[in-house]
Amino acid sequence: MNGCNNAIAFARENRERFLNEYRAFLRIESISTLAEHRQDVARTAQWVADQLHLAGVAHVAIMPTAGHPVVYGETKGPAGAPTMLVYGHYDVQPVDPVDEWVSPPFEPEVRGDYIYARGASDMKGQIFASIKAVEALSKQGPFPFTLKYLIEGEEEIGSPNLGAFIDEHHDLLQCDFVCNCDAGIHAPDVPAITYALRGLAYFELEVRGAEKDLHSGLFGGSIHNPAQALCELIAGMHDADGHVTLPGFYDKVRALDAEERAAIARLPYSDEEWKAMTGAPALWGEKGFNTLERIGARPTLEVNGMLSGFTGEGSKTVLPAKAMAKISTRLVADQEPGDVHDQLCAYLKRHCPPTVTWEVRELTHGKGAIMDRKTPAMKAASNALETVFGKEPIFKREGGSVPIVAMLQDKLGVDSVMLGFALPSDGIHGPNEKQYLPNFLRGIETYIHFMSGLGA
Amino acid sequence: MNGCNNAIAFARENRERFLNEYRAFLRIESISTLAEHRQDVARTAQWVADQLHLAGVAHVAIMPTAGHPVVYGETKGPAGAPTMLVYGHYDVQPVDPVDEWVSPPFEPEVRGDYIYARGASDMKGQIFASIKAVEALSKQGPFPFTLKYLIEGEEEIGSPNLGAFIDEHHDLLQCDFVCNCDAGIHAPDVPAITYALRGLAYFELEVRGAEKDLHSGLFGGSIHNPAQALCELIAGMHDADGHVTLPGFYDKVRALDAEERAAIARLPYSDEEWKAMTGAPALWGEKGFNTLERIGARPTLEVNGMLSGFTGEGSKTVLPAKAMAKISTRLVADQEPGDVHDQLCAYLKRHCPPTVTWEVRELTHGKGAIMDRKTPAMKAASNALETVFGKEPIFKREGGSVPIVAMLQDKLGVDSVMLGFALPSDGIHGPNEKQYLPNFLRGIETYIHFMSGLGA
Q1: What pLDDT score was predicted for residue B253?
Q2: pLDDT recorded at residue A367
Q3: Which residues pair with A149 in a beta bridge?
Q4: Distance (Å, rounded) from C-alpha B138 to C-alpha B151?
């Protein structure tokens, strides 16, 4: 425990430097989905590798994939000691709508207790806190466990090359469990550990009418407007009670048992706070479930984007040739993402009229996961959170998707401890993403306590 | 008639020069709706004024409005002679989707019998043909009628300042009838005169949910997705039989009588050709009416554009804060465009759920019109078409809107002769807009015969 206390002291002494390095990390525009940022993504990988090296990780390598590279690190512990693989990603989401950012997304700005930047919360802040914990601990002597790092650059585009990477480096990545830092807690002072994640299946649906855009006066009303047809199809994807209508969508959904519903009911939550946090005029959702059940335990379908015809300023009297929607589903444990593609196509075959044509492209998918809450690593994480936050963490189901968790269960046979410090109100993926700075610092200390507790 | 024959000869001798000037006209990017083209629009007005001057029009002026200027021209005829006001516009529609143009929209290219460019058909080709007819005629001696030109630069944005201009210059614009060149014929060898036009009411509808874009995994399924809500609202704007459901939408629609239905049935038309022309997989429309009735005699509602959330390449798991649609209605005689705004709002009040908010902005509107087919000017136009095309023109109802026609009826008390040579297949407002060149040349000759016939 002396090592731990000294590491905590080191982290506190180096707080300003850590924050400056965090800012530098946030300045690199590592948007993985945009081809024009390929060089920025590569620079970010190099930056992260340098940080691992600075933190005392013995072997660090930037390893190529068919897409953006993986940053790998390793420090061997004593023979027979457990092995922990820390997972994170260094890429970020695009920044549009960019004109809604108060400060530029890649010029981190501290306002009050928050730092604002794309990636501040998702997840540069989290993975960087873990690296700083490793730096603080490695100053105190050899690690009592084997530490591995796997930090990818394609999480925000669905990790298209990670599966092949894990297969190719199967032996290198062997471990007893994963610490996944791409996670959050429930509220600023409410520590939490996520034990269930939703899967994702994300599609682009295009509906076509005429061969090209036509004049809406000369042709409108004589052929089916594809924007209207798309609206009709999307409108039909939920029934009046908010259930998703894709055929078979709920077939494999695991029912919530009474014990879990009771546990969810005990979580700190109020409809009024949720309304205030989102700014929506009212809540909405699947009938028969409350908000936390809808988010954590039920599959959902969302329109993520929609585009057709003329969308500039003013008026253009065009009858569009096509209309496009990005549609994604969040899936719970036991649902197969691959099935959703078939369900969506079955829905379209049944409901799309012969007056337009449709095409579906699957953009990304990943399975949901549910973890054992009683492992030694879970216990160590729980103890660390309780020590730093002064209260026992809650165990929660997460609405978001971390497909890597299911992938690591499948490919390496290991569970993940979800340990990160993002907040639901951080605005990740949207404008003005932020990280609550006190928890960035508590995060470093939590990782120090957690790792110190692993060798015990 | 000697003057007429000499003018025809002059037009044939100067064909190459006329085509080169037409090309120069098409090269100027007079997109009235885009602020960045303001200078181009002004340059176009100057170019048109120069052409009127070159054509022998005695008094030419560029006259300011609160928006883009009007080009005015006048040549006085003998005392007691009739006065014709020629109407046209020199502005054009935007060019998106620009990547679907085979040749750049402002680099006119002749392929086969067609010239391709934005504005080739709508309506630089038409107004320019009339100006060249005036040039040919003015070489032959004084006009037997008073000629006035009113060429505006804001037709494609709904002529927001034309009403005030006409009011301000009410005396200057006095005339016995209008020749509106913003018109077309039915097929390459089927001359036609439009005697009815549809009105237009064009709106932007915005639906809002959360205050800002949110993560679709963390919030999706707990609040109403505004893109989904917009789809639900748009889907409900037509019933299963293709009727528009806005309350009161059909209240003032004038029923088609048996005689008009019979006249429409005699027009050259086939469903197969219409399908081939549009490229749509099937026809669609209001039950109880055929295509030409739907286009010419029934009001319709179209989605002209739609935008929400992430529409770039790849996937972004965002729950959008808002969704927008451009929605326009085409109206038939007796429907009041101002009523449609109220009808749309009434529909939204009735059907928009409390889980989202909505806002409607009216972007533009204009009334429909129906004209007397038996005036001397109509007769002169009919004769001219028969002389040049070798067959009697058909009289037709037009699906498009030329709100200026109703405006001139209201403000100056005069009817319009719709005389232009665009074709339904010209692709106006869309990519690869074209003009059938043989009819551009026949158009010049038709205008020559028409004007020669007026003094008689």
Answers
A1: 93
A2: 87
A3: A73, A86
A4: 19
* Predicted complex ipTM exceeds 0.85: no
Per-window interface: A 27-56 vs B, CB < 8 A: 33-34
Would you place residue B374 in the very low, low, confident or very high pLDDT band (cuts 50, 70, 90)?
confident
Question: Under CATH, which architecture does the B199-253+299-366 domain have?
Answer: 2-Layer Sandwich (3.30)
SS3 content of chain B, % helix, strand, coil (to 5): 40, 25, 40
Distance to chain B for A425, nearest Cα, Å = 9
Q: Tell me: pLDDT of B39 over 90.
A: yes
Class of domain A2-197+368-454: alpha beta
Nearest to A154 by CA among A320, A33, A235, A273: A33
Asked whether the beta carbons of A217 and B330 are under 8 A apart, the reply is yes
CB contact under 8 A, A227 and B303: yes
The CATH H-level superfamily of B2-197+369-454 is: Zn peptidases (3.40.630.10)
Nearest to A429 by CA among A7, A88, A94, A60: A94
Please state, as a whole number, how many other Cβ atoms lie within 10 Å of the Cβ of residue B44.
Answer: 28
In chain A, where are the structural domains located? 2-197+368-454, 199-253+299-366
**In the prediction, which pLDDT does B257 show?**
87
Give CA separation, B127 vs B91, B110, B166, in Å: 11, 19, 20
Q: With 60 as the cut, is the pLDDT of residue B125 above it?
A: yes
Asked if residue B455 has pLDDT above 80, the reply is: no
- Interface contact A148, partner B, CB < 8 A: no
Contact B121, B423 (CB under 8 A): yes
- At residue A455, the pLDDT reads 66
| Residue A122 DSSP symbol | I
Q: What is the pLDDT of residues B248-301, one digit of tens each?
A: 999 999 888 898 899 889 888 999 999 999 999 999 999 999 999 999 899 999
Give the residue-averaged pLDDT of B170-199: 93
The beta-carbon neighbor of B431 closest among A212, A234, A304 is: A212
Q: Is the pLDDT of residue B38 over 90?
A: yes
Scanning every residue of chain A, which has its alpha carbon at the shortest distance from the alpha carbon of B331? A217
Please state whether the peptide bond connecting residue A123 to the residue before it is cis, i.e. omega within 30 degrees of 0.
Answer: yes
pTM as predicted: 0.77
Phi and psi angles of residue A220, each rounded to the nearest 5 degrees, phi first: -60, 135
